[in-house]
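Thread: "does anyone have the structure for this chain?"

Original post by V.I.:
We have the sequence but no experimental structure in hand. Need at least a predicted one for the grant figures.
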Amino acid sequence: MADNGTNPLHRLHGEGQSVWLDYIRRGILENGELERMIRDYALRGVTSNPTIFEQAIGDSTDYDAELERLAAEGATADVAYENLAVADIQRAADFFRPVYDESQGTDGFVSLEVSPELAHDTAATLEEAQRLWTRLARPNVMIKVPGTEAGIPVIEQLIAEGVNVNVTLLFSLENYERVMEAYLAGLERRAAMGEPLERVASVASFFVSRVDGAVDAKLQKLLEAETDEERRARIRSLLGRAAIDNAKRAYRRFREIFSGERWERLRAQGAQVQRPLWASTSTKNPEYRDVVYVEELIGPDTVNTMPLATVEAFADHGEVRRTVDAELDRADAELAALAELGIDLDAVTDQLQVEGVEKFAKSFREMMQTVEEKLGRVAGRV
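Reply from O.Q.:
Generated one for you, tokens below.
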């Protein structure tokens, strides 16, 4: 890895992009590894989700001692999980507190997700988000709320209450616009109550690589059926482009929304923008560059949350230049070409959100089963 003076991850910060680690487990909090990564990789935050916790708890012995104590207390699986997760998030937030203070509350956040089982229940999502915020008791945590139809009013209410929110599972521009509106409306409600806006923070997690996975599959089917070489070449040129084009279009809309009279009134009262966060940025297709979803979405007021392998790859050979608002005409043309081929991107992204909620809910259930089995094992019941 390059030294701190030339490490590409450090240079991302110079372009206005924060690197957050999409990974957490007890071991890296206790052995000094997270502190090392904060220093060497210029990390400025951490995100978690049910899949990450399921793997952390299920694939290690990091939590066995605490599970033994919880089992002795008669804790249920849901109580045990929340204890484990809250402790990890609080510890990580304490490591990032200097970043939070130095950035005056604009960075250094650690995210914990409400149960994805509640993704379509507004009241239950709000109640759990409020409870987790109170229990975590750290100014530099974010509560992850899915950007589903049921989640939109939760976002507005939490922002009005001064709760930091990471809106997750965003794929479509239309849905993203609703999320930005909820954020602005929440800030306006908070300002009307005479409450301060300065330390209210939010990110909108826009998922990237999964879009290519879905669109590329449709393009491959078209290729198989097409015999005209010119049309085949055009179809091939669109492979691996939809995700980046979709995200660039979202960034353009972000710049439009966070400008003008309405936004300037809020900014004058101390409000900060709701930064786009690029999620799902590991490369799933081995034919694509392993850091493509980082390199092509670099720019001001953005976050890229990366799994550890992507962090390490970018530190080794990532190329840094402002790209997120470059070649927008090309992005528009490629998205138009998809529509001409009969690929409905809105339908694709709607389906991806449905699948994303289901995937996280499945991981959540599997995690609860793992915790229950471990509780039984350490208590000698199985």
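V.I.: this helps a lot. The two ends are 46 Å apart (CA to CA).
O.Q.: and The mean pLDDT is 95.
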